[in-house]
Amino acid sequence: MRSSTETQTSSTDVFKWAIVVLLVAVGVVGNNYFSAESLLYRLIAILVLAGVAGFVALQTAKGKAFFTLAKEAKTEIRRVVWPTRQETIQTTLIVLAVVLFMSLVLWGVDSLLGWIVSSVIG
């Protein structure tokens, strides 16, 4: 069962998302309407509208959850143990060798099957 705060948050979120959609629509229509104006001015206007729309979107429950996820992802990236240059080169060479080997195997199987089919047909 929903509490009154969840319903209130939901209704305000719907209003905020409507504002975001309206800002994006104004940006698209305005960019088309002012197509004769300088690209620089249109780009600045689009960036300002996108910034305002992003700010409004971050005020919603899903926006806050996204921001939290982004912060946690940044923390996780710091914990990743990245391979050394030597490990990266070795792994790349192994992948290239396997790809070359498999391409030769598939070419051989294709040639063999092509030869068998041409012998049977003609």
UniProtKB/TrEMBL annotation:
UniProt GO MF annotations? protein transmembrane transporter activity
A GO CC term assigned to this protein in UniProt: plasma membrane
List residues traversing the bilayer: 14-34, 40-58, 93-117
Q: Record's superkingdom?
A: Bacteria
ATP-binding keyword on record: no
Query: What are the GO BP annotations of this UniProt entry?
Result: intracellular protein transmembrane transport; protein secretion; protein targeting; protein transport by the Sec complex
- Where in or outside the cell is it found? Membrane
Q: Which keywords annotate this record? A: Cell membrane, Membrane, Protein transport, Translocation, Transmembrane, Transmembrane helix, Transport
Q: Which HAMAP family match?
A: SecE (MF_00422)
| Entry similarity comment | Belongs to the SecE/SEC61-gamma family.
Fill in the subunit field for this protein. Component of the Sec protein translocase complex. Heterotrimer consisting of SecY, SecE and SecG subunits. The heterotrimers can form oligomers, although 1 heterotrimer is thought to be able to translocate proteins. Interacts with the ribosome. Interacts with SecDF, and other proteins may be involved. Interacts with SecA.
User: What's the stated role of this polypeptide?
Assistant: Essential subunit of the Sec protein translocation channel SecYEG. Clamps together the 2 halves of SecY. May contact the channel plug during translocation.
Q: What is this protein called?
A: Protein translocase subunit SecE
Record the organism. Answer: Marinomonas spartinae
Q: Provide the taxonomic classification.
A: Bacteria, Pseudomonadati, Pseudomonadota, Gammaproteobacteria, Oceanospirillales
